[in-house]
Every structure is written in C-alpha cells, then in structure tokens.
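User: Fold this one for me? It's Glyoxylase, beta-lactamase superfamily II.
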Amino acid sequence: MLLRQLFDNTSCTFTYLIADGPGGQALLIDPVLEKLETYLRLFDELELTLAYAIDTHVHADHISALGKLREFTGCETVHGERSLARGISRKVGDGDWLHLQQVKLQAIYTPGHTDDSYCFRLPAKPADLLFTGDTLLIRGTGRTDFQQGDAEAQYRSLMDRVLCFDDDTVVYPGHDYRGMTSSTIGEERRHNPRLQVSDQREYAQLMGALKLDRPEHMDIAVPANLNGGLLREAG
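Assistant: Here's what I get for Glyoxylase, beta-lactamase superfamily II.
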C-alpha cells in the first residue's frame, strides 16, 4: 500500500493519497482545488489511476478539487449520503465500503462538525488507519457553530463511533494548525483536552465558548462545494 499525506498551507488542510502501490489504483481524501496540479503530477509520476476522490464533508475553508479531478481523470467523486452536494458520482452510507484492487475504505457517519461529516477507516496491519476529517483533530475537535453543526451530536460521534476503535488505531485528521501530522486513538483519548469532559452537556458548553472567527472564504467555498467543487456554476 502507498500512503502520502499532502498539505495545503493556506487552509491547513491535509489531503491523503492512498493507492494499492505504484502503478495501481488510487483514491484521494479531501483534495484541495489549488493543489490540483500537484495531484495530477503525482498520478503521472507514480503511474496511478485515480478511482475515487472523496470529501469527508462539505468544506467551508477551501474549494474541493473533486469536480476538476473528475474532469481530468474520469474518477468517481464521493460524498456521504447525508451531503446535499450536487454533481457527485456516488454517495456512501454508514458502513459502506469503497474498494481499490487491494485497499478498501469504510465510511463511518460522524455528524457534529457538520450534519454530513464522515470518517473513513482503512483496515491495515499492524494497526487500522482512521481518516477523521474535521470530527477528531490532534488534541482538538472540529468546530460545531455553522453548517448544521451540533456539539452534542459531535460528542456522541466521538464517544460512540470514533473512540470505540483500538488505542493503536492511527488517526489522520483533516487539518492541523500546530505542525502535528498524525496521532492514535489512545493518545487522543488520554491527552485531547476536549475529550476530558464528563458528558455531552459539558462538551457542548466547552464548544459554545470557543468564539472562533468565521472561515475567510466560506461564502465562496460552501456554494462551490455544494456544486461538487465547480466554482463556475456555484450560485
């Protein structure tokens, strides 16, 4: 298996390239439009065929590359079934699988950051990999104050859907703002300050007190991403 973690400095977004190996099928998780040329160059250099381009949710801080990747490569574009985005090839439900020739990825519905947030699990040895989008970050969690966000729903997603995995499960988040690249479920359970609360009410109070700035490009990014990442037709 081939795994590359790519980073967009402007939005602090991680994109994950996963492939069976050089010369095989590949998928991208949370690709950023501004990095399109980087992705296409990698596909060419590694002789990869892109099968799927996946968004973990409708992003508010960057425009997705899904639409352009579909135009350039013919890949399937993927959202969770709760997404309202148009022009998506496939929408996956909780527990559904996406398959390459060897690698497989399972969708896990984890609402809270948005009402269409999903994580994706990749079974692997010695430990599974969990791509958590904006649901679980390294020593943090995704904000819940817009796009039908719900702190209590996020608490339930974290406790019932994410932290139920083994401690050695590797966590690959959708963003990081402090130079961290990966973690584990065990680390986050022990050291993530937002997970040291007694119940969902306390968690909701914590999230409600954050007072975060509005994403700078939200008014452009959300309409474009609801249109599959195609800015020219966004309304």
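One thing worth pointing out: Residues 2-213 form a domain with the Metallo-beta-lactamase; Chain A fold (CATH 3.60.15.10).
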